[in-house]
Specification:
The protein has 336 residues and is α/β, with parallel strands linked by helices. It folds into two domains: 34-117 and 221-335, Periplasmic binding protein-like II (D-Maltodextrin-Binding Protein, domain 2, 3-Layer(aba) Sandwich); 120-218, Periplasmic binding protein-like II (D-Maltodextrin-Binding Protein, domain 2, 3-Layer(aba) Sandwich). It has 16 helices and ten strands. It has helices at residues 2-32, 48-55, 58-61, 74-83, 94-100, 149-160, 180-185, 198-204, 214-218, 230-235, 237-256, 259-266, 275-287, 299-312, 321-324, 328-335, and strands at residues 34-40, 64-70, 88-91, 108-115, 120-124, 140-142, 170-172, 191-195, 209-213, 224-229. The strands form two sheets. Strands 2-1-3-10-4 form a five-stranded mixed beta sheet, with helices on both faces. Strands 7-6-8-5-9 form a five-stranded mixed beta sheet. Keywords: Signal. This is SsuA/THI5-like domain-containing protein. Residues 48-254 form the SsuA/THI5-like domain. InterPro entries: SsuA/THI5. Belongs to the bacterial solute-binding protein SsuA/TauA family.
C-alpha cells in the first residue's frame, strides 16, 4: 500500500513538474511573440537610443518583437496610428495636440520621451565665427514645413532673438524636406535649416557651415515621443510597460557609452554612413543634450512646447497635460 501511494505521489509530482514547465514555456513563448508595429517619423541618428534598444536586444529582453517602419513624415506617422496600421509611433507631441483637439474617441497618448531638443541646425554659405541671429535679417532662409515642429521652433528662436520671421527676412517653404540640402548647395537661399546628417555632410564637403543650433536656442521640448492609443494602454498595459522599460535601458546605456561604442552599435541601422560623419553627428547631438536621459514627458517641457506653438499660431486651444500624457510607465521603468 505504501509503495503504491509512493508511486502515485511520484507520478503526481512528475505531472505537476511537466505542467509547470509547459506553462512557463508557454508564457515565455507568449512574451517573445508580442509583436509591436512601430512607425518612426523619419530614420535619423537623432533617434539613436531607439536603435540602441533594437540592436542591443533590449526590446527582445522584454519579450517584444519590434517591427520598425519609416513613415517619412509626421502626418503619415499619426495616420498610421489612427488607422490601426501602427501600435506605437515616434513623432512630436504636437501631433497628439492636433488629434486631441478633434475630440477623438480613442486619443493618442504620449508615454515615453526620446529626444528633448530640436534636432536641426542653421547652415550658412560662408563660415561665421561669431554668429548672431540678427544676421538673418534681410536674408533668405530655406525653412521647413508649416505647422511642423522644426519650422515652429525656427520661428520661435528667431523671435526670441529679436528677429521677426517672414517680416525681417524671407523663408522659403515650398521645397520638399528631402531636397533642402541639394537646393541649398545648388544656390538657393543664404541660410538653410537642416537635420543631421545632411548638415554635417554639406559641411565636410565645404559647401556650407553649421553656425547655430535650434536645439540650443529653443530650450527643452518633448520633441520626439513614443505615442500609442489609449485603447492599447487599457487592453495591454504590460506591452506599453515593456516598451518603456527597453527605452529606459537604452537611454542609460547611451548616457554611459563612448561615441565609438554607440557608433558600433547603430551602424547596422546606417550601413551607408561615413564613420567620421556618424561620429560628428553623435557628438553634436550629445553635446547639446538632445537625447532624453529618462522617458518621462516632463510637464515643464510640455508648457514650453505650448509657447512655441502659440507663437506660430498653431495652438488652437490648450490641451491639459494630463489628457495626452501618461508618465506611469516611464516612472515604473525607472523604478525597476
Amino acid at each position: 500500500m505504501f509503495k503504491k501511494s509512493l508511486k502515485i505521489s511520484l507520478i503526481v509530482i512528475v505531472l505537476f513538474s511537466l505542467t509547470f514547465t509547459i506553462a512557463c514555456s508557454n508564457t515565455k513563448n507568449s512574451d517573445t511573440n508580442h509583436k509591436v508595429r512601430l512607425f518612426e517619423v523619419t530614420h535619423s541618428i537623432f533617434y539613436t537610443p531607439l536603435y540602441v534598444a533594437i540592436e542591443k536586444g533590449f526590446f527582445k529582453d522584454q519579450g517584444l518583437d519590434v517591427e520598425l517602419t519609416n513613415a517619412n513624415g509626421g502626418d503619415k506617422t499619426m495616420t498610421a496610428l489612427v488607422s490601426g496600421s501602427a501600435d506605437v509611433i515616434l513623432v512630436g507631441t504636437e501631433t497628439t495636440i492636433y488629434v486631441y483637439s478633434q475630440n477623438p474617441k480613442d486619443p493618442a497618448i504620449n508615454f515615453a520621451q526620446l529626444t528633448q531638443t530640436d534636432g536641426s541646425f542653421l547652415v550658412s554659405r560662408e563660415p561665421i565665427k561669431n554668429f548672431t541671429w540678427d544676421m538673418l535679417k534681410g536674408k533668405t532662409l530655406l525653412g521647413q514645413r508649416k505647422g511642423g515642429m522644426p519650422e515652429m521652433v525656427s520661428e520661435y528662436v528667431q523671435h526670441l532673438n529679436g528677429v521677426e520671421p517672414k517680416v525681417d527676412n524671407e523663408i522659403i517653404q515650398n521645397i520638399d524636406y528631402a531636397n533642402l540640402g541639394s537646393a541649398f548647395v545648388s544656390g538657393t537661399g543664404d541660410f538653410v535649416q537642416l537635420f543631421e546628417p545632411i548638415a554635417s555632410k554639406i559641411e565636410l564637403e565645404g559647401k556650407g557651415h553649421v553656425v547655430a543650433s535650434f536645439g540650443h536656442g529653443s530650450g527643452k521640448l518633448p520633441y520626439t515621443v513614443f505615442i500609442t492609443k489609449q485603447s492599447l494602454i487599457d487592453k495591454n498595459p504590460e506591452i506599453v510597460q515593456k516598451f518603456a522599460n527597453a527605452i529606459y535601458m537604452a537611454q542609460q546605456w547611451v548616457n554611459e557609452a563612448s561615441l565609438e561604442e554607440i557608433a558600433d552599435v547603430i551602424t547596422p541601422q546606417f550601413q551607408d554612413f561615413n564613420r567620421d560623419v556618424m561620429l560628428k553627428v553623435l557628438d553634436r547631438y550629445r553635446s547639446q543634450g538632445s537625447w532624453a536621459t529618462d522617458p518621462i514627458v516632463d510637464e515643464e517641457e510640455y508648457r514650453n512646447l505650448e509657447k512655441v506653438m502659440e507663437y506660430a499660431g498653431e495652438l488652437k486651444e490648450k490641451i491639459p497635460y494630463e489628457a495626452i500624457v501618461n508618465t506611469e510607465f516611464a516612472k515604473k521603468a525607472m523604478e525597476q
